[in-house]
Design goal:
By secondary structure, the protein is of the alpha+beta class. 32% of the residues lie in helices and 20% in strands. It has one domain. The protein is built from six helices and eight strands; from the N terminus they run H-E-E-H-E-E-H-E-E-H-E-E-H-H. It has an eight-stranded antiparallel β-sheet, with helices on one face. One of its GO terms (cellular component) is nucleus. Keywords: Membrane, Transmembrane, Transmembrane helix. One of its GO terms (biological process) is protein-DNA covalent cross-linking repair.
Length: 236
């Protein structure tokens, strides 16, 4: 019986991997997400035990999606990220009561801009959110890394957006600084920060310096055929 379960698990694993690997497509452009108001907490390493309470009791989990901002690679020894709940996806601040509840429970508030240009990929929820998230990490992250390196793109941070029906990975290529929460400024603006998807490539050290010092998008325009961008954009 145990052997049969193992075989079934392996077959399901292969099937899901095939679906995500060959059917889910990575995209370059404007993701289907607008300006967000997010209540978050920041962690240099561990999960927040009270985040589920915040989602289920302080807010209705049926109304609000969750989100994470990753400022280090998920394989790093110390993972730094902000974990939170999307209070509004229209850029309009919610009512004062929600903001009060968020702050009362130790959460900070950040407003992000609408993302005009990014690398992104969407994984439909398959079987469960946990299983989908695992595949999104093991399939999505390497795919985005390879995609960005081939096109000499420098994007940060990595955004994970969770909804009822999907897990979306987004790497902004413009206005990246506006996705940096206050608690992450030391690692992002300091010399410790390296682009999440370029830090393995030592040959692109000059690009990494630009990412660290200027927090800009590095584009190889020859590799961006079909892109809406018509010129190199940097942010000083």
């Amino acid at each position: 019986m145990l052997t049969l379960c193992v075989y079934i698990f392996i077959l399901v694993f292969i099937a899901i991997h095939f679906i995500f690997k060959f059917i889910v497509k990575i995209r370059l452009g404007t993701p289907p997400i607008g300006s967000l108001i997010i209540a978050y907490k920041y962690s240099p390493k561990g999960l927040f035990k009270n985040l589920n309470f915040f989602r289920k009791d302080v807010f209705s989990s049926s109304l609000f999606s969750s989100m994470r901002f990753y400022y280090t690679d998920q394989l790093a020894k110390e993972i730094e990220y902000a974990d939170g709940v999307i209070l509004s996806d229209t850029g309009v601040f919610p009512n004062d009561h929600l903001l009060f509840l968020a702050k009362q429970n130790g959460f900070s508030i950040i407003k992000t801009p609408a993302i005009s240009h990014a690398i992104y990929v969407t994984f439909p929820i398959f079987l469960s959110l946990t299983i989908t998230k695992i595949f999104a990490i093991f399939v999505g992250y390497p795919t985005i890394r390879q995609f960005s390196e081939e096109r000499n793109l420098c994007g940060y941070p990595v955004l994970e957006v969770y909804s009822k029906h999907s897990v979306m990975l987004i790497v902004p290529l413009l206005r990246q600084d506006e996705f940096v929460v206050q608690e992450a400024e030391n690692i992002v603006y300091g010399r410790e920060f390296l682009s999440v998807y370029n830090f393995h490539n030592k040959k692109q050290l000059s690009n990494l310096d630009l990412c660290s010092n200027q927090h800009s998008m590095i584009l190889d325009m020859k590799n961006l055929k079909g892109s809406k961008l018509t010129k190199r954009e940097t942010k000083g």
